[in-house]
Write a structure and sequence with these properties.
It is built from eight helices and four strands, in the order αββαααααββαα. By secondary structure, it is α+β, with helices and mostly antiparallel strands.
């Protein structure tokens, strides 16, 4: 940036034998032109990077617009059921916002749940059947409490970051 600024508006130089020779590096590096152009460059880099990230994320969506996207419900149903705190099959499925999972009783205690929202999140449909943990043998189930609360902590951190913005 200092080099570009110096080429546009040279400072701190002398002409010796027809050549530009630097004589004051402080003036060259801290040219007033540099401070005008400096904010432009990080901002331009940030915007360019943001567009690259957005394009990279949009490309698969644009290519598979008519196909339903791959998700946990299709490829990792037991993990998805654990994250959702869904013990039994539901159609339509509710979304458990908060609860205290009880693996021994295969239920949730003190559950706060929104009806139908689980089907909408899981498969973008209002009446899809969502699989519960009891469809899988106990030895093939993850420890439900860990993914259940880890997911809610992640969502909570994301909401806090949005609110702080």
């Amino acid at each position: 940036m200092a080099n570009n600024g110096w080429m546009q508006e040279p400072v701190g130089y002398a002409v010796e034998n027809g050549a530009f020779v630097p004589v004051d590096w402080f003036k060259i590096i801290f040219s007033p032109v540099l401070w005008v152009r400096f904010p432009h460059m990080p901002l331009a880099s940030f915007v360019t990077g943001a567009f690259c990230v957005a394009a990279t994320g949009a490309w698969p969506a644009a290519r598979h617009r008519r196909r339903r996207g791959a998700n946990h419900a299709d490829y990792q149903p037991v993990k998805f059921a654990a994250i959702e705190g869904r013990w039994h099959d539901e159609q339509p499925a509710g979304e458990v916002l908060l609860a205290l999972p009880d693996p021994a009783a295969e239920t949730n205690r003190y559950e706060i749940k929104i009806p139908i929202l689980g089907s909408l999140i899981g498969s973008m449909s209002l009446n899809t059947k969502e699989v519960g943990l009891t469809d899988f043998p106990p030895q093939h189930r993850p420890p439900v409490t860990i993914p259940f609360f880890a997911f809610r902590i992640m969502v909570g951190c994301g909401l806090v970051m949005l609110l702080l913005d």
